[in-house]
Amino acid sequence: MTHDFLIIGGGIAGVSAGARLSELGRVLLLEAEPALAYHASGRSAALYEAQYGKPATVALNLASRADHDSLDGGVLSPRGLMVLAGPGQGAAFAHDVADMHLTEVSVAEAVARVPILRSGAIHAAAIHDEAWDIDTDRLIQHFARTIRTNGGQVVIGARATAITRLHSGWEVTMGDTVHTARMLVNAAGAWADQIAIMAGIAPIGITPLRRSVARIPAPGGHDVARWPMLMGAGEGWYAKPDAGQLIISPAEEDPVAEPHDAWPDDMVLAEGIARYQEFVTPEVTRLTASWAGLRSFAPDRVLVLGPDRLDPAFIWVAGQGGYGFQTAPAASRLVADLVAGRAPELDPDLVAALSPARFRDGVA
Questions:
Q1: How far apart are CA 238 and CA 249, in angstroms?
Q2: φ, ψ of residue 327 in degrees (nearest 5)
Q3: What pLDDT digit, counting tens, does each position of 314-349 carry?
């Protein structure tokens, strides 16, 4: 059977694109791992903060909000964001306040919201109440269910071993199984350039960057459910309530030579916990879990969405970085519009800024 769209990658990029494209034709989505959202999507801090990211990302965030409020009954719940600055961080703090439209608050108000904060360590604080937790599993399952409802297939544990360009489309081999499709959608996250090379398409310079995360018990036995996400000025660390505990990250972006199933760097993780520790009174005495994920960026750190410049039957849905969930509704709608030949709802300058055509000769 020949499919209309064969999608490689079962993270939020792949399943959201698959859901939109399933309205245009038959979709087959292949995920190499044993579950959807196995890599970066399953290890995300999952915050919707509309003003977080470069201008093109912010535009996608804003264009996605209505869907986040309505899909499957809505996938957002209140969280809030608080940015904290210590000595010598005034410039980074001012940049964050301007960039994310934060409201400066007194140290006393910050401590009133998060009682474990060490007031003497805080030189400035700002908040943004319009930041929301995203129910990532609910969103993933909504999109996957849409693919199936529209007659498509989602296959896990399906790793592409060869890709061949045919006159009429693509042939993708998985061991002894071969699938054909008119269009190939590259939503492989950190592996996006490898998939492109396998397909004979010029890579664009997708760089996988490791980020480590630890989970700790609720500090001091507090109920953390209503606390905002905490972030150090300049995103030097963050801490976020998660299932009655806190997750803490040094917010590092360390390049890795090859994409892989990432694991945390213990020394880097310790540094991040130490940065968090400077701002709070309870000591971190144990971790309940730790993990890492790979955030993948294009050279300009802007998402790559749409047909390849030289082969329009090869569709890029890549370079989400840490913005995959919050941009997914608008990003996937744009991809479907471009494939269908419809005029996108987004501004033409934004569409051009996201297009793979900006990388004229492959790698920028």
A1: 5
A2: -95, -10
A3: 999 999 999 999 999 999 999 999 999 999 999 999
Helix (H, G, I), strand (E, B) or coil at 170: strand
Cα distance between residue 150 and residue 262, in whole Å? 34
Distance in angstroms (rounded) separating the CA atoms of residues 302 and 143: 23
Asked if the model's pLDDT at residue 176 lies above 60, the reply is: yes
Give the closest residue to 325 by CA, choosing from 39, 56, 61. 61
20 close to 333: Cβ distance less than 8 angstroms: yes
User: Where do the domains of the chain lie, and which CATH numbers do they carry?
Assistant: 2-57+136-206+299-358 (3.50.50.60), 81-129+207-294 (3.30.9.10)
The span from the CA of 206 to the CA of 191, in Å, is 8
- Predicted TM-score of the model (pTM): 0.95
Q: From CA 8, how far away is CA 13, in angstroms rounded?
A: 10
**pLDDT tens digits for range 36-89:** 988 877 777 789 999 999 999 999 999 999 999 999 999 999 999 999 999 999
Burial annotation 208-247 (CB, 10 A radius, 16+ → b, else e): bbbbbbbebbbbeeeebeebbbbbbbebbbbbbbbeebbb
323 within 8 A of 303, measured Cβ to Cβ = yes
DSSP H helical ranges for 88-221: 90-100, 107-113, 136-149, 192-198
Burial-class residue 66 by CB neighbours within 10 Å (0-12, 13-18, 19+).
exposed
Query: What is the C-alpha to C-alpha distance for residues 173 and 110, in angstroms, rounded to an integer?
Result: 55
C-alpha 250/C-alpha 163 separation (Å) is 38
Q: How confident is the model at residue 234 (pLDDT cuts 50, 70, 90)?
A: very high
- Measured CA angle at 230 (ends 55, 276), to 5 deg: 120
Q: Measured between alpha carbons, how far is 188 from 138 in angstroms, rounded to an integer?
A: 21
Give the DSSP letter string of 57-124.
Answer: HHHHHHHHHHHHHHGGG--EEE--EEEEE-TT-HHHHHHHHHHHT-EEE-HHHHHHHSTTB-GGG-SE
Q: Are 277 and 284 in contact (CB under 8 A)?
A: yes
